[in-house]
C-alpha cells in the first residue's frame, strides 16, 4: 500500500518530535513535510533540533534532512503532504486561525492543540468513544466553503486517563450522575522545558492553569451528539476536579469517585464493573487500526497499582490502566486510573485519530 504523505506543524517542539518518532515506519503514513517557527525555517530538521532532540533515540533518517518550513504560511505545504498533524505552540487565537488557513488550502488538520476544541463543528475525538462525531465534518466543510480541508482535534491529555472507563459504563447501561476527579499529572504535560526543577523536586503543585475547566467541560462534548450544525454537549455527568502537577516524567494518574444515576438495586456490582471494563472494545479495535490497543482498558488487582513507571507503557502506551476499584463511602465506587500522557494523551492519540479518519474514507480524495 502506498503511504500517505503527512506534515508536522510545530515539528521542533516536544509533541512534534514525538509525532516524528512514532510515525517512523508507520504502515499508513510517511512524514514528508516539517514546519515550525520562522527562526527554524530554512534549516535542515536535524540542525533545527540538534541541541534539543528529547525523544532519546536518533532522529529518523527520512526526516533528519528535510528542510523546515515556516508553519505560518499554509501554502508552503501544498503538494508536499496530504494532511498535517498540528502540534503548534503559540497563542490559541493564532493557532485557530492557522489551522483554519491550512484547511482552507485543502489540507486536513489533525490537531493536538486546544484552540479548536470548543469550535461547535469540530469533532474532539477519542476514537473508542465518539467516532460518530466524524459526521460533523461535512457540515464543517459546508460552513466554511472548504472542499477537502477540515479540522479534527483530540482532547486534553488528562481526560484520556478516565474517559474510556466512564464511557464503557455508560454504554453498558450504567449512567453516571456525578464524578469527583483528582489528577496527578506528569511534568512532560507542561512541555519543554516545562516546570522548574525547584518547583517540582520534593514538591507537588496543586494547580495547573486551565486544566480543571478542561477536565470538567471537555468530557461533556466528547459524550455529546451531533445535532444539526454542531455537536450538542451531554448534560451529565457533573464533574468536580482538582488538577495537580507531580514529580513524574510521563504518565497521568487520576483518582475517581462515581455516583450512578440509577436506583440502588440497579447499580452495578464491583464484579460487573470489572466485567464491563475488561470486555470493552470499540471501533478502533473492530477496524484493527495500527495504533489501537488490543485492550483499551486493563484492570490490575495488586493493591498498589497502577503506577506510572510500571504501567504507563501498557499496550504500547495506549491503554487506560485501572486499579483499586472499591466501594466509596460518599458516592458509589472509586478507583485509580493511569494513561500515558505523551502517547495516548498526545501524539499517538493524534495518530489514532488520523488512522480512524483514513479508515472512514476522509483522506480518499486528497
Automatic annotation (TrEMBL):
Listed Gene3D superfamilies: Dihydrodipicolinate Reductase, domain 2, NAD(P)-binding Rossmann-like Domain
Annotated catalytic residues: 157, 252
SUPFAM superfamilies, per database record: Glyceraldehyde-3-phosphate dehydrogenase-like, C-terminal domain, NAD(P)-binding Rossmann-fold domains
A molecular function (GO) term: aspartate-semialdehyde dehydrogenase activity
InterPro entries: ASADH-related (IPR051823), Asp-semialdehyde_DH_CS (IPR000319), Asp_semi-ald_DH_pep-lack (IPR005676), NAD(P)-bd_dom_sf (IPR036291), Semialdehyde_DH_NAD-bd (IPR000534), Semialdhyde_DH_dimer_dom (IPR012280)
Protein keywords: Amino-acid biosynthesis, Diaminopimelate biosynthesis, Lysine biosynthesis, Methionine biosynthesis, NADP, Oxidoreductase, Threonine biosynthesis
GO annotation terms (biological process): diaminopimelate biosynthetic process; lysine biosynthetic process via diaminopimelate; methionine biosynthetic process; threonine biosynthetic process
SMART domains membership: Semialdhyde_dh (SM00859)
Semialdehyde dehydrogenase NAD-binding domain segment(s): 5-137
Membrane spanning residue stretches: none
Record flagged with keyword Lipid metabolism: no
Source domain of life: Bacteria
Matching PROSITE patterns: ASD
EC code(s) of this entry: 1.2.1.11
Family per record: Belongs to the aspartate-semialdehyde dehydrogenase family.
General function of this protein: Catalyzes the NADPH-dependent formation of L-aspartate-semialdehyde (L-ASA) by the reductive dephosphorylation of L-aspartyl-4-phosphate.
Name of the protein this chain belongs to: aspartate-semialdehyde dehydrogenase
Amino acid at each position: 500500500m502506498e503511504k500517505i504523505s503527512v506534515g508536522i506543524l510545530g515539528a521542533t517542539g516536544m509533541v512534534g518530535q514525538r509525532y516524528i518518532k512514532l510515525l517512523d515506519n508507520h504502515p499508513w503514513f510517511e512524514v514528508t513535510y516539517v514546519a515550525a517557527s520562522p527562526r527554524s525555517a530554512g534549516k535542515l530538521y536535524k540542525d533545527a533540533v540538534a541541541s534539543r532532540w528529547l525523544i532519546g533515540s536518533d532522529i529518523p533518517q527520512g526526516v533528519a534532512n528535510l528542510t523546515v518550513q515556516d508553519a505560518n504560511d499554509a501554502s508552503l505545504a501544498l503538494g508536499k503532504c496530504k494532511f498535517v498533524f498540528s502540534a503548534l505552540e503559540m497563542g490559541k487565537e493564532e493557532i485557530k486561525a492557522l489551522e483554519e488557513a491550512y484547511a482552507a488550502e485543502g489540507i486536513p488538520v489533525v490537531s493536538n492543540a486546544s484552540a479548536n476544541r470548543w469550535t461547535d463543528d469540530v469533532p474532539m475525538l477519542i476514537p473508542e468513544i465518539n467516532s460518530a462525531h466524524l459526521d460533523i465534518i461535512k457540515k464543517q466543510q459546508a460552513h466554511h466553503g472548504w472542499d477537502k480541508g477540515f479540522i479534527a482535534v483530540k482532547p486534553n491529555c488528562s481526560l484520556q486517563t478516565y474517559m474510556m472507563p466512564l464511557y464503557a459504563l455508560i454504554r453498558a447501561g450504567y449512567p453516571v450522575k456525578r464524578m469527583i476527579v483528582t489528577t496527578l499529572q506528569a511534568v512532560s504535560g507542561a512541555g519543554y522545558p516545562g516546570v522548574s526543577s525547584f518547583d517540582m523536586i520534593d514538591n507537588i503543585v496543586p494547580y495547573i492553569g486551565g486544566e480543571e475547566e478542561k477536565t470538567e467541560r471537555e468530557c461533556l462534548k466528547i459524550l455529546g451528539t451531533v445535532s444539526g450544525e454542531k455537536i450538542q454537549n451531554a448534560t451529565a455527568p457533573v464533574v468536580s476536579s482538582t488538577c495537580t502537577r507531580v514529580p513524574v516524567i510521563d504518565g497521568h494518574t487520576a483518582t475517581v469517585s462515581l455516583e450512578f444515576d440509577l436506583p440502588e438495586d440497579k447499580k452495578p456490582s464491583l464484579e460487573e464493573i470489572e466485567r464491563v471494563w475488561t470486555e470493552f472494545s470499540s471501533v478502533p479495535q473492530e477496524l484493527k487500526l495500527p495504533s489501537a490497543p488490543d485492550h483499551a482498558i486493563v484492570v490490575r488487582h495488586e493493591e498498589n497499582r497502577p503506577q506510572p513507571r510500571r504501567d504507563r507503557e501498557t499496550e504500547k502506551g495506549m491503554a487506560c490502566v485501572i486499579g483499586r476499584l472499591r466501594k466509596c463511602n460518599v458516592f458509589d465506587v472509586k478507583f485509580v486510573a493511569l494513561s500515558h500522557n505523551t502517547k495516548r494523551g498526545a501524539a499517538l492519540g493524534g495518530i489514532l485519530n488520523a488512522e480512524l479518519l483514513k479508515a472512514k474514507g476522509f483522506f480518499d480524495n486528497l
